[in-house]
Amino acid sequence: MFASRRLSQLVLCSTFIAGCLGYAWDAPVAGSCTNYYYSYDFGCNYAEAYYPCSYANQPFLGSLFECIGSYAKDEAEKIEGYNYIIFLATYGGYDYTLDDVYTMIDNSTKYMKTAEDAANLTIVNFPFAPDRETILWNRKIYYQMTKFAKIDTKWLGWGLIFFWVVVIACATVVNVNRRYLKIPVPRKVSQAVRKHLTYPSTVRYFPSLFPTRLHSIVICLFLIQTTLSSAIGYNFMLPNPYLTDKLFIMYVIQHRTGMFSLYMFPLLIFFSIRNNPLVYFSGLSYSDYMTYHKVTAIVMTIEALIHSIVWTAYVYVEGDAALLMEDAYWKWGVVATCLAGVMITHSLKLFRQYAYETFLFFHNVMGILFIAAIWMHLNDLGYRGFVWALLATWCLDRVARIFRICLSGGLQKMEIEMCDADVMKITFKKPRYMQYYPGSYLFISFLRPWYSAWQFHPFTTISSPVEDGDSLTLYVKVKKGITKSLSKLKFDENNKMTVRALVEGPYGSRVHSCDPEEEFIGIAGGLGISGVLPALFDYIDKIPSSAKVSMITASQDKNKLDSESTSVNTGSSDPTHNSSLFWIINDVRHLNWLNSTLNYLTENGCKVTVLLSKRNAEESTDASFVQTIKYSVRYADGRPDIGTLIESCLLTKIKNRLSFYTCGSDSFNDTMRDEIARKIEVGSNVELSHYAEAYVW
Q: Which of 123, 128, 521, 647 has the smallest count of CB within 10 Å of its CB?
């Protein structure tokens, strides 16, 4: 399965690169010649089917081919110029070949005249050679314009892609060193980077787009490069024979911004797909890539909007607006720009949180319509290679997802248990070919209710040692949408039922494996415990059995609900503990469905502390259950102060290397990062690391 997954991901990479290369541009000599002869009337005009008329006109074609043959710098450019005219003729419905071209050249040579002969004619009805000085000037300007479009814009556009190549390459180097090479980094350097870059939040109240300072620096550098790339390289010789001087800058700006929006396409789709091979190689999470997906989507939309506005203003000033608005490419360009704007607007966090399933459905539908609109917009303009790259990558991702579902055994039988009114426990047998690892998550489609079968929802996966070894467990909070619908189904007398579901996965990067030389500290809020437990189980498995100290002999006063305690202090340092877990909950009933797991952790040397933020415990827990508790349960009088909690962990530490594993809401994870960053002292012997499991996108 591992090899198959890597193969499918590499195919996606190849498609992405190959598709981006597939666009063409006409030969400079052909552009120079066509522009020269467009200023003469060969009996055709734009309003009366210009292409069908002009590209059947033998004097016009003979003049073009004479010009191309005389002023092409070599045989290759001459053939390229002929092929470009053949391509333009297809707009008129003509399918010429090179043999037809040579026949027309032989025929026109017999009647060839000079530019002076055609200078004073209203309608030209014979082929003629161009004025040498004019065509050489046209050619010089056209080479400059070609350099702007084919070289400068092309490489500046590739530079935007290369920016992300560098970012991902740097992340990959760090990830490979962390996972395999393990080359030590100077302590002061790592502490300074964590304290000032990777941990602190940039904007506390707008974390979804700028989660950390490092994210913000990367995003700002990308925005700066995009702005500079859009603003440089507009040095042209004037007068320009192709455009009036006052409108020339408008034309080149719309071209540059339109092309840059196309260069965002591969990044846009590659950052958003589930089967992204870069997640594995770089170590960046899917949440990180979704952050960059949002940024590239905004940049693409802004560039496309500038392109549309400037091009609209240009054609209005030129006086061609009414005529061009009849063209299909214009109409589809407007549709694509509007769709991009709507997709950006409805992707705001406000709408995603309110109705995520609805958001995801319409986002995918509008994405498909956007691709179709861009395809039609580029029908006569070229550059479809970008759309092919986007479309092929999107389709291959869907194929890979179906492949993963098949490897996961197709339909699975899942047992759902209502632990309490707010939490469901889902258990199913681990598929034969599914490779579980700490930090993995699955997308699941429940076939009940039937109308929700098209939805795939992500859930953190747990392989618990207190459960059946061949089973996987999911803890799910009942909210809106599918979880609410499942909770309303009919359960048996044991609050259980069985449903069929499709399983897709696993996804996600393997969580950092904590070494026995480090002290593991897990802090989870509510159902965030699902994100911390896999890493904690992995850590406990590494501890030699002889080193695991049972906590069963703890004093009886700790094996009950401590209704008097209001502090989050963890107590004095105890060298018998090899790890600590703090679980912050607001309902003591949560202990009922996780009690056996918490007792298991306690028995294996983990100091477990449950912090209750509400004083309703006595009403919900009977005395017999209290006697089974082997861990500490404390009241926090509201949400505990994270800074105080971390400070108490530092005061009671038993090792100088502390790894904090956290999972909770957006604000919870942001607060954890900020508080840990504040506690890091550059140059200190104490090393603090933070690993957040955050499934936010």
A: 123
Q: Quick check: is 687 in a domain?
A: yes
Return the closest-CA partner of residue 276 out of 164, 431, 367. Answer: 164
Answer with the one of 130, 146, 166 that is the final residue of a domain: 130
Residue 335 lies in a domain: yes
The tens digit of pLDDT for each residue in 504-532 reads 989 988 888 898 889 999 999 999 999 99
Q: Is residue 342 part of a domain?
A: yes
Alpha-carbon distance of 223 to 229, in angstroms, equals 10
Residue where a domain stops, chosen among 477, 507, 537 = 507
pLDDT digits (tens, 9 = 90+) for 411-451: 899 999 999 888 999 999 998 888 899 999 999 999 887 77
Domain count along the chain: 4
Q: Are residues 427 and 465 in the same domain?
A: yes
pLDDT at 549 over 80: no
β-strand partners of 441: 460, 507
| HEC secondary structure over 151-207 | HHHHHHHHHHHHHHHHHHHHHHHHHHHHHHHCCCCCHHHHHHHHHHHHCCCCCCCCC
- pLDDT bucket at 10, cuts 50 / 70 / 90: very low
* Same domain (yes/no): 113, 259: no
The string of pLDDT tens digits covering residues 625-634 is: 777 888 999 8
The H or E element that residue 428 is part of is strand 423-429
- The enclosing domain of 528 has a CATH number of 3.40.50.80
> Tokens at residue 145, please?
């314009």
Backbone angles phi, psi at 574, to 5 degrees: -130, 110
Q: Are residues 268 and 319 in the same domain?
A: yes
- At a CB cut-off of 8 Å and minimum separation 6, what does 548 contact? 540, 578, 604, 605
CATH number, domain at 469? 2.40.30.10
Number of helices (H) and strands (E) in the chain: give both, helices first. Answer: 26, 13
Same domain flag for 104 and 227: no
Phi, psi at 41, each rounded to 5°:
-100, 110
Q: Does 94 score more than 70 pLDDT?
A: yes
In the chain, what is the greatest distance between 2 CA atoms, to the nearest angstrom? Answer: 113
pLDDT-derived band at 148, boundaries 50, 70, 90? confident
Please indicate, yes or no, whether residues 365 and 453 belong to a single structural domain of this protein: no
Closest CA to 522 of 612, 628, 649, 681: 649
In a domain, residue 151? The reply is no
Model pLDDT for residues 163-220, shown as the tens digit of each residue: 999 999 999 999 999 888 989 999 999 999 999 999 998 876 554 556 889 999 999 9
φ, ψ of residue 426 to 5 degrees: the values are: -115, 125
Q: 9 — phi, psi (to 5°)?
A: -70, -35
At residue 128, the 3 state secondary structure works out as strand
Q: Which domain holds residue 94?
A: 28-130
Q: How far is 536 from 662, CA to CA, in rounded Å?
A: 11
